[in-house]
Amino acid sequence: xxxxxxxxxxxxxxxxAVSLLLAxxxxxxxxxVHGEASVIQASIPVSSPVxxxxxxxxVPLRSLAAQRNIHIGAAVQMEPFRSDxxxxxxxxxxxxxxxxxxxxxxxxxxxxxxRYDFVDADALVAFAxxxxxxxxxxxxxxxxxxxxxxxxxxxxxxxxLLILRQHIYTVVxxxxxxxxxxxxxxxxxxxxxxxxxxxxxLEGIGPEYIGxxxxxAHEADxxxxxxxxxxxxxxxxxxxxxxxxxxxxxKQDNIPIHGVGLxxxxxxxxxxxxxxxxxxxQRLNDLGLEVKITEMDVQIMDGIGSQADKLAAQxxxxxxxxxxxxxxxxxxxxxTWGVADPFSWIRLVNHRPDSPLLFDDSYRRKxxxxxxxxxxxxxx
Length: 380
Ligand code: G3I
Known about the structure:
Blueprint: H1 3-26, H2 61-67, E1 71-76, H3 78-83, H4 85-94, E2 97-100, H5 106-109, H6 119-130, E3 134-141, H7 148-151, H8 157-174, E4 181-186, H9 200-204, H10 209-220, E5 225-230, H11 238-252, E6 259-262, E7 265-267, H12 274-286, E8 290-299, H13 307-327, E9 331-336, H14 345-348, H15 367-377
Parallel strand pairs: 1-2, 1-9, 2-3, 3-4, 4-5, 5-6, 6-8, 7-8, 8-9
The structure holds ligand G3I.
């Protein structure tokens, strides 16, 4: 072989090696929902360079949580649930507690008087049963999301009692044995913690609507775990104290209440006080109440630093809230308010381009997911 031919062969071999190296370094490598490589959809902004996933065994959160006798849940939006198979696959794979985000609320289920629409709720309950998931229903009694037929005219106290009792009996009986727990009363303490929040129920019936709602729910399904659910009462303070006082009175009156939902809508610019969270959970435990983190999301856009810094701060909050839940005997689970960032209420309803959840715009696991995986696997 001439010298020129040998040089040409060597150049071709070098070119081939360089092109191989480029292909390996440049092509995106990441585990998709099921660990298989998939192409990032260029049109959807990827919110973060996700931690190299090959060193995190792909053990779903729900499996790790079950080993610690708690559940990991997510609130479900109907639009992606019905239209996106990847959304459904992620939901089934990672979570063992399903919360219908909106379709079990008064305004959705009884939008017309005495006409109940269970189609969407039935679909979610069936999916949960198919994938061995618990269902946490929300919310039987709330000051918001009420239908116009109820809010557009005055009612006597007797009429309101009948309307509320019938709604609770109809809905809870419908899902008897299928919905494990309910937010019976949602957000009935005023934001400043000074009083009960004004609502059609408080003005029209009186404060006894709360105890009556729990009694009716218990009569409709004696096996369901019945919760009071609220926000900004996770740690200690006026609102937390007012919630505690309300619950103490309900227990003293032998009202069938089993637990408290601490919603945990927070941000890296306003992180929770973890020591206060633990103290609050412990005093609720002393009342004999179960505690769940029911609606967790951690906003990052108002934080400082790079995107990576913000995601790390977000991961730290998810990790520490879950750590506290694992440290107290009465905390039975943590649910995020949404499955993945694009479907967070913070984007859809508040119209803020934030990234508050565990999975990003391409359903990729974020540092917060890995942080929760690690805390579930660790002993402390
Ligand atoms: O589905 C309709 C859609 O057809 C329509 O085009 C669109 C515009 O009007 O509205 C859509 O319904 C919206 C629904 O969310 C589904 O996205 C409602 O208007 C909107 O009011 C509703 O907001 C929900 C809100 O509660 C009020 O019910 C949010 O999704 C939900 O995340 C939020 O969740 C609450 C918890 O229940 C209680 N704790 C606080 C939390 C956040 O506010």
